[in-house]
Design a protein that fits this description.
This protein is α/β, with parallel strands linked by helices. A seven-stranded mixed β-sheet has the order 1-2-3-4-5-6-7, with helices on one face.
């Protein structure tokens, strides 16, 4: 038994006809594309193919104008279920157009590498619950102030110094393997001298202890 909404289940918001909603008017749009023709055939849903038509160049241009990602200032693209390669490619295509976004959420999208993406105005980025293993895989964010990387797979702090030249004030690395590294907080704050808060805890005096004091505590006294 099919519901009335079944004919729309594989459509993104901009593929629905007879509306003039722009991308910058949406806070949490669905951008994940529907299955391919071959996938629909194997699922036994080939009847939905009749609803599809060839898209002309004019219609492609109209769709690009309707998406209007260039004017988005705040956007949530979390939980997009990017299970196939073509989904990831389409997702990155959209990210490359976010030249004015200031706040961006990309939570739980199984992302592994966004190093080719540049977000020139992004001040707040949330990429929790993805599959990043290194700071080198993050997008370029020269204006970043608040960065959340909780529940990824970042094992070392190698590459964190790339954020030194940004105005980063708050960083969250909870539930990453690097959190268990010896002198974790001291190493992070020494790499990012402008950082004010780590994992929700403000910078403490012991987080910036001078090197000679740390060395002193490693020495032993023989009486």
């Amino acid at each position: 038994f099919k519901l009335p909404s079944d004919s729309f289940k594989y459509l993104s918001w901009c593929d629905i006809e007879e509306h003039d909603v722009r991308g910058n008017q949406l806070h949490c749009p669905r951008v994940r594309e529907g299955p391919s023709k071959e996938e629909l055939f194997f699922r036994g849903e080939e009847l939905t193919l009749k609803k599809r038509k060839e898209v002309t160049d004019t219609e492609k241009w109209q769709k690009k104008l309707q998406e209007n990602w260039e004017n988005c200032a705040e956007l949530n693209l979390s939980f997009q279920d990017l299970g196939d390669l073509y989904q990831v490619e389409n997702f990155k295509r959209i990210l490359q157009r976010l030249i004015r976004v200031e706040k961006l959420w990309l939570v739980d999208n199984s992302l592994t590498d966004l190093s080719a993406i540049r977000l020139p105005r992004c001040r707040e980025l949330n990429v929790n619950k993805n599959h990043f293993t290194s700071f080198k895989q993050l997008p370029k964010t020269p204006q970043i102030q608040h960065l959340s990387l909780a529940e990824n797979n970042i094992r070392t702090l190698c590459g964190i110094s790339d954020l030194r030249h940004t105005p980063l004030e708050s960083l969250i690395l909870k539930r990453n393997p690097c959190e268990f590294q010896e002198r974790y907080r001291q190493l992070v704050f020494s790499s990012l001298p402008n950082l004010k808060m780590l994992d929700g805890i403000p910078k403490l005096p012991e987080d910036s202890s001078p090197p000679d004091v740390r060395f002193f505590f490693k020495m032993c006294t023989i009486l």
